[in-house]
Write a structure and sequence with these properties.
The complex is a heterodimer of chains A (94) and B (233). Chain A has four helices and no strands. Chain A has helices at 2-16, 23-30, 34-63, 68-93. The longest helix of chain A is centred in the middle third of the chain and has 30 residues, at 34-63. Chain B has two domains: 2-97, Ubiquitin-like (UB roll) (Roll), CATH 3.10.20; 100-229, Alpha-helical ferredoxin (Fumarate Reductase Iron-sulfur Protein, Chain B, domain 2). Chain B is elongated and about 60 Å long. Classes of the chains: A mainly alpha (94), B alpha+beta (233).
């Protein structure tokens, strides 16, 4: 899922930025687009799920952090990513 | 040729010996020469000395290898060798490690066949070229030498991790339709199991029998995912 999202994102950005791009031009295309809103919402939520799952063993292996506190930390981290991401998505697409 | 050999336990140190150089010399020849002619107190393991038993596994110039199958020509750097015991295992003395954890993890991963048939049942019919059997055959020749376990960085970083050999063995049983896989997947899933593998493939790179524990572990990951989706875990 994430591989698909990243690919679509990169191709779109590279294509859109040909010949320069201003913030106003970006917002003219994105604001009010339900399709892209949906796409980027899924992207943000997928990343917010994936990143904590990956960070968890890294914390265990490098900081020797195990147990409940680690689970709480990665969950909060995922929540933070989801919040920051959706804030950005809503700002760009609505 | 200068050979540095680990002496003592974990708090030991390297001791250097001057060893005569011969053509077609193996690292095991070198270690044996030291013990027989220079220092009889050197402790090390070997048995078959022809690359079948896996007893002589040690760390040679940083890499875990079978010393009987390692030609000095291939690994010596500036005519110098460094021989240490296998990594990730407690050192008993010099080049001898305590392999109990390795085998305990093999047990914990469910490393023994558990069949449902009795002697009054007919033979199981498994085609040798079936996907199941080819996958099992690729991993079945493991002799438990510990080289993959020593090579694995995840074993180093996560003391609970069952390790490549135990999981490889578990895969040969999970994939076997004659085996009752019921409890197996629960034993090898989770933080200490197949999901801790980061696919570094050090195990596959170093296995003297050219087994790929990484591929077996990938099979376990798929099996666990499938069972999870089907609600069988």
């Amino acid at each position: 899922m994430l591989a698909l999202c990243v690919t679509v994102h990169l191709v779109t950005i590279v294509y859109a930025v040909r010949g320069g791009l201003t913030a106003a031009e970006i917002f003219a295309r994105t604001r009010g687009s339900v399709g892209w809103l949906a796409f980027y919402s899924i992207f943000v939520l997928a990343a917010a799920v994936h990143a904590p799952i990956g960070l968890r063993p890294v914390l265990g292996e490098w900081l020797k952090w195990r147990g409940r506190s680690r689970e709480v930390f990665v969950l909060l981290f995922g929540g933070l990513l989801a919040w920051l991401g959706m804030r950005a998505v809503l700002a760009v697409f609505t | 040729m200068k050979v540095s050999v680990w002496r003592g336990d974990a708090s030991g140190s390297l001791q250097t010996f001057e060893v005569p150089r011969f053509p077609s010399q193996t690292v095991l020849d070198v270690v044996t020469h030291i013990q027989r002619h220079l220092d009889p107190t050197l402790a090390y393991r070997y048995a078959c000395r022809v690359g079948m038993c896996g007893s002589c596994a040690m760390t040679v110039n940083g890499a875990p290898r079978w010393t009987c199958r390692t030609h000095v020509d291939r690994v010596a750097r500036n005519e110098a060798l460094e021989v240490r015991p296998l990594r990730n295992l407690p050192v008993i003395r010099d080049l001898v490690t305590d392999m109990r954890t390795f085998f305990d993890k093999w047990e914990r991963a469910g490393g023994h066949f558990d069949g449902a048939a009795t002697k009054s049942d007919d033979f199981a019919r498994i085609a040798p070229d079936s996907a199941e059997r080819k996958s099992i055959d690729a991993g079945i020749e493991c002799i438990g030498c510990g080289v993959c376990y020593a090579a694995c960085d995840v074993v180093k970083w996560n003391p609970d991790y069952l390790g490549p050999a135990a999981l490889n063995r578990a895969w040969t049983l999970v994939a076997d339709s004659r085996d009752r896989s019921g409890e197996r997947l629960r034993a090898i899933a989770g933080d200490a199991g197949c999901h801790a593998c980061h696919t570094h493939m050090s195990c596959t790179e170093r296995c003297p029998k050219h087994i790929s524990p990484t591929a077996s572990i990938a099979g376990l990951k798929r099996a666990v995912a499938k069972a999870e989706i089907e609600g069988k875990l």
